[in-house]
Please model this.
Amino acid sequence: MRKKIVAGNWKMNMDYTSGLSLFSEVLNMVKDEVTGTQEVVVCAPFIHLQSLSQLAAQQSRVTIGAQNCHQAESGAYTGEISAAMLRSVGVSYVILGHSERRQYFGETDALLAEKVNVALKNNLKPIFCIGETLDERNSGKYFDVIKRQLGDGIFHLSDADFSKLVIAYEPVWAIGTGLTATPEQAQEVHAFIRKELAAKYGEAIANDTTILYGGSCNPKNAADLFSQADIDGGLIGGASLKSRDFTDIIKAFN
Ligand code: PEP
Model:
């Protein structure tokens, strides 16, 4: 049975104090209001991770993620952070391949494959993001793009490693734009992804893989998106910065 997950991506927002208050509010709301089995992940900037891990220790269904790691184990990479460092402060997940990293930092599928390897080696579960741009959607190439990102980024993994990974389908045209994919558009791509996984890893692994939707998900559209057969939760950007909105999205599973 695959896991249902709602993951927040704070991006480069929240100073230390604001982040701690937001997270404490989320913890309390989840404790008081959320029933069901869905896991909640908060992917925060590096400065928050250790404190959030300590706070989350009181709430077993909330776990902590980072938003990036370097592909090397350690070394002379000024300003970077390693997977082992993240793990050492209690981080469980790491977002890899977010479109903002691909677009603004030139991260390629080949580089992302290295990052996925180092994350898994250090017991971090990658939330591996894929998705097409507006041009790629309009020119009908989106299935090719998804296929390439899967093939070059994660299809080198063994069955055992692949089973630890979460995939997030995030159409680039929907991220931070208010233009959410319709539940049908999202389901179409999620079903395609699951079919590709089945062809590569078999039905059992494909059925057990959590595939999240990301892109302007909010409390109004979450329930419709999450009710689709192949959508197992969401990766939430803007709406994860407001405890009420984020909690209402988590509750959309109930
Ligand atoms: C994201 O950045 O992963 C994201 C989905 O952002 P937003 O929800 O703001 O579109």
The pocket of phosphoenolpyruvate is lined by residues 9, 170, 175-176, 214-217, 235-239 (CB under 6 Å). The CA atoms of residues 96 and 153 lie 10 Å apart. The chain has twelve helices and eight strands. The beta strands are 5-9, 39-43, 62-66, 93-96, 125-130, 166-169, 211-214, 233-236.
